[in-house]
Amino acid sequence: MLRVEHLQAGALPPLTFKVAAGECLAIEGPSGAGKTRLLRAIADLDPAQGQVFLSGAERLEMPAPQWRRLVRYCAAEPAWWSDTPRDAFTGATASRIDRLLHSLGLESAVLDRTVASVSTGERQRLALARALLDEPQVLLLDEPTAALDPQSTALAEELIRYQMLAGRCAILVSHDRGQIERLAHARLLLLKEASRPLAAAAP
Description:
Layout: E1 2-8, E2 15-19, E3 24-28, H1 35-42, E4 49-54, E5 57-58, H2 64-70, E6 71-74, H3 94-103, H4 120-132, E7 138-142, H5 150-165, E8 169-173, H6 177-183, E9 186-191, E10 196-197
Parallel strand pairs: 3-8, 3-9, 6-7, 7-8
Antiparallel strand pairs: 1-2, 1-4, 4-5, 9-10
Protein backbone atom coordinates (compact mmCIF):
# COMPACT_ATOMS: atom_id res chain seq x y z
CA MET A 1 0.00 0.00 0.00
CA LEU A 2 1.10 3.55 -0.77
CA ARG A 3 0.10 6.10 1.85
CA VAL A 4 0.51 9.84 1.38
CA GLU A 5 0.19 12.10 4.44
CA HIS A 6 0.09 15.89 4.30
CA LEU A 7 2.24 15.97 1.17
CA GLN A 8 2.67 19.53 -0.06
CA ALA A 9 4.41 20.26 -3.37
CA GLY A 10 4.58 23.74 -4.85
CA ALA A 11 1.26 25.58 -4.63
CA LEU A 12 -0.71 22.44 -3.87
CA PRO A 13 -2.29 22.20 -0.43
CA PRO A 14 -1.32 19.31 1.87
CA LEU A 15 -2.71 16.09 0.42
CA THR A 16 -3.54 12.89 2.27
CA PHE A 17 -4.69 9.70 0.53
CA LYS A 18 -3.80 6.04 0.10
CA VAL A 19 -3.75 3.52 -2.72
CA ALA A 20 -4.12 -0.14 -1.86
CA ALA A 21 -2.24 -2.92 -3.60
CA GLY A 22 -4.03 -3.88 -6.79
CA GLU A 23 -5.79 -0.53 -7.16
CA CYS A 24 -5.45 2.56 -9.32
CA LEU A 25 -6.06 6.15 -8.23
CA ALA A 26 -6.70 8.67 -11.01
CA ILE A 27 -5.54 12.26 -10.51
CA GLU A 28 -7.75 14.63 -12.50
CA GLY A 29 -7.75 18.36 -13.04
CA PRO A 30 -7.10 21.08 -15.63
CA SER A 31 -3.66 21.81 -17.06
CA GLY A 32 -1.55 23.60 -14.49
CA ALA A 33 -3.40 22.15 -11.50
CA GLY A 34 -0.28 20.32 -10.29
CA LYS A 35 -0.90 16.72 -11.38
CA THR A 36 2.61 16.09 -12.69
CA ARG A 37 4.15 17.95 -9.75
CA LEU A 38 2.28 15.63 -7.38
CA LEU A 39 3.56 12.50 -9.13
CA ARG A 40 7.12 13.81 -9.13
CA ALA A 41 6.88 14.64 -5.42
CA ILE A 42 5.68 11.12 -4.61
CA ALA A 43 8.63 9.75 -6.58
CA ASP A 44 10.99 12.02 -4.58
CA LEU A 45 12.07 13.77 -7.77
CA ASP A 46 10.96 17.22 -6.59
CA PRO A 47 11.16 18.66 -3.06
CA ALA A 48 7.99 18.40 -1.01
CA GLN A 49 6.92 18.55 2.59
CA GLY A 50 4.98 15.73 4.20
CA GLN A 51 5.39 11.97 4.21
CA VAL A 52 4.96 9.10 1.75
CA PHE A 53 4.93 5.51 2.98
CA LEU A 54 5.23 2.27 1.02
CA SER A 55 4.26 -0.83 2.99
CA GLY A 56 5.03 1.09 6.18
CA ALA A 57 8.45 2.40 5.10
CA GLU A 58 8.77 6.18 4.70
CA ARG A 59 10.52 7.47 1.56
CA LEU A 60 13.16 9.41 3.52
CA GLU A 61 14.16 6.24 5.38
CA MET A 62 15.87 4.84 2.29
CA PRO A 63 18.23 6.20 -0.38
CA ALA A 64 16.43 8.05 -3.15
CA PRO A 65 17.52 5.60 -5.91
CA GLN A 66 16.13 2.69 -3.91
CA TRP A 67 12.80 4.51 -3.40
CA ARG A 68 12.57 5.32 -7.11
CA ARG A 69 13.13 1.68 -8.02
CA LEU A 70 10.12 0.79 -5.90
CA VAL A 71 8.00 3.84 -6.74
CA ARG A 72 8.49 4.37 -10.47
CA TYR A 73 7.61 7.59 -12.28
CA CYS A 74 6.80 7.24 -15.97
CA ALA A 75 6.84 10.70 -17.56
CA ALA A 76 4.47 11.93 -20.23
CA GLU A 77 7.51 12.89 -22.33
CA PRO A 78 10.07 10.19 -21.51
CA ALA A 79 13.75 11.08 -21.71
CA TRP A 80 16.47 8.85 -23.18
CA TRP A 81 20.17 9.06 -22.36
CA SER A 82 21.54 6.73 -25.01
CA ASP A 83 21.61 6.46 -28.80
CA THR A 84 19.45 3.34 -28.83
CA PRO A 85 16.78 2.11 -26.40
CA ARG A 86 18.66 -1.14 -25.73
CA ASP A 87 21.12 0.56 -23.37
CA ALA A 88 18.20 1.38 -21.06
CA PHE A 89 17.00 -2.24 -20.97
CA THR A 90 19.48 -3.81 -18.59
CA GLY A 91 19.13 -5.94 -15.50
CA ALA A 92 16.46 -8.24 -16.92
CA THR A 93 16.50 -11.43 -18.95
CA ALA A 94 16.05 -11.28 -22.70
CA SER A 95 12.84 -13.28 -22.39
CA ARG A 96 11.33 -10.79 -19.95
CA ILE A 97 12.27 -7.87 -22.17
CA ASP A 98 10.74 -9.61 -25.18
CA ARG A 99 7.52 -10.36 -23.27
CA LEU A 100 7.14 -6.74 -22.20
CA LEU A 101 7.78 -5.43 -25.69
CA HIS A 102 5.47 -7.91 -27.37
CA SER A 103 2.70 -7.18 -24.87
CA LEU A 104 2.83 -3.59 -26.14
CA GLY A 105 2.90 -4.55 -29.81
CA LEU A 106 6.62 -3.87 -30.25
CA GLU A 107 9.22 -6.02 -31.96
CA SER A 108 12.52 -6.61 -30.20
CA ALA A 109 14.38 -5.05 -33.13
CA VAL A 110 13.15 -1.61 -32.05
CA LEU A 111 15.73 -1.70 -29.26
CA ASP A 112 18.55 -1.38 -31.78
CA ARG A 113 17.13 1.53 -33.73
CA THR A 114 18.30 5.04 -32.88
CA VAL A 115 16.01 6.85 -30.46
CA ALA A 116 15.69 9.64 -33.02
CA SER A 117 14.26 7.22 -35.59
CA VAL A 118 11.65 5.73 -33.24
CA SER A 119 8.18 7.25 -33.45
CA THR A 120 6.64 9.18 -30.55
CA GLY A 121 4.18 6.36 -29.89
CA GLU A 122 6.93 3.75 -29.94
CA ARG A 123 9.02 5.79 -27.52
CA GLN A 124 6.06 6.06 -25.17
CA ARG A 125 5.49 2.30 -25.23
CA LEU A 126 9.21 1.68 -24.79
CA ALA A 127 9.19 3.98 -21.76
CA LEU A 128 6.33 2.01 -20.21
CA ALA A 129 8.19 -1.25 -20.79
CA ARG A 130 11.36 0.31 -19.34
CA ALA A 131 9.44 1.43 -16.23
CA LEU A 132 8.16 -2.10 -15.63
CA LEU A 133 11.43 -3.89 -16.28
CA ASP A 134 12.47 -4.35 -12.64
CA GLU A 135 8.92 -4.79 -11.30
CA PRO A 136 8.37 -1.67 -9.17
CA GLN A 137 5.66 -1.84 -6.53
CA VAL A 138 4.05 1.49 -7.47
CA LEU A 139 3.53 2.97 -10.93
CA LEU A 140 3.18 6.74 -11.30
CA LEU A 141 1.80 7.08 -14.82
CA ASP A 142 1.69 10.54 -16.39
CA GLU A 143 -0.43 10.42 -19.57
CA PRO A 144 0.91 6.93 -20.43
CA THR A 145 -1.02 6.60 -23.71
CA ALA A 146 -1.31 10.21 -24.92
CA ALA A 147 0.63 9.49 -28.14
CA LEU A 148 -0.91 6.09 -28.86
CA ASP A 149 -3.56 4.94 -31.30
CA PRO A 150 -6.60 3.03 -29.95
CA GLN A 151 -5.08 -0.41 -30.54
CA SER A 152 -1.80 0.46 -28.80
CA THR A 153 -3.73 2.17 -26.00
CA ALA A 154 -5.72 -1.03 -25.42
CA LEU A 155 -2.49 -3.04 -25.18
CA ALA A 156 -0.96 -0.55 -22.72
CA GLU A 157 -4.09 -0.55 -20.57
CA GLU A 158 -4.11 -4.35 -20.51
CA LEU A 159 -0.50 -4.35 -19.32
CA ILE A 160 -1.30 -1.79 -16.61
CA ARG A 161 -4.30 -3.85 -15.55
CA TYR A 162 -2.08 -6.92 -15.33
CA GLN A 163 0.30 -5.04 -13.02
CA MET A 164 -2.58 -4.35 -10.66
CA LEU A 165 -3.67 -7.98 -10.76
CA ALA A 166 -0.10 -8.82 -9.73
CA GLY A 167 -0.56 -6.70 -6.58
CA ARG A 168 1.03 -3.45 -7.67
CA CYS A 169 -0.73 -0.12 -7.31
CA ALA A 170 -0.89 2.79 -9.73
CA ILE A 171 -1.53 6.51 -9.73
CA LEU A 172 -2.72 7.63 -13.13
CA VAL A 173 -2.81 11.10 -14.68
CA SER A 174 -4.84 11.09 -17.87
CA HIS A 175 -7.04 13.45 -19.85
CA ASP A 176 -8.77 10.39 -21.34
CA ARG A 177 -11.97 10.05 -19.34
CA GLY A 178 -12.65 6.65 -20.88
CA GLN A 179 -9.29 5.42 -19.71
CA ILE A 180 -9.98 6.61 -16.18
CA GLU A 181 -13.33 4.81 -16.25
CA ARG A 182 -11.62 1.61 -17.37
CA LEU A 183 -8.66 1.61 -14.98
CA ALA A 184 -9.33 3.71 -11.89
CA HIS A 185 -10.82 2.49 -8.63
CA ALA A 186 -10.92 6.02 -7.17
CA ARG A 187 -10.29 9.60 -8.23
CA LEU A 188 -8.70 12.71 -6.81
CA LEU A 189 -9.61 16.02 -8.43
CA LEU A 190 -7.21 18.95 -8.24
CA LEU A 191 -8.77 22.35 -8.77
CA LYS A 192 -6.49 24.95 -10.30
CA GLU A 193 -8.67 27.88 -9.33
CA ALA A 194 -8.80 27.13 -5.63
CA SER A 195 -5.64 25.00 -5.46
CA ARG A 196 -7.70 22.66 -3.36
CA PRO A 197 -8.39 18.96 -4.00
CA LEU A 198 -11.77 17.34 -3.71
CA ALA A 199 -11.96 14.11 -1.75
CA ALA A 200 -11.13 10.93 -3.61
CA ALA A 201 -14.26 9.17 -4.75
CA ALA A 202 -15.09 5.97 -6.56
CA PRO A 203 -15.59 6.51 -10.31
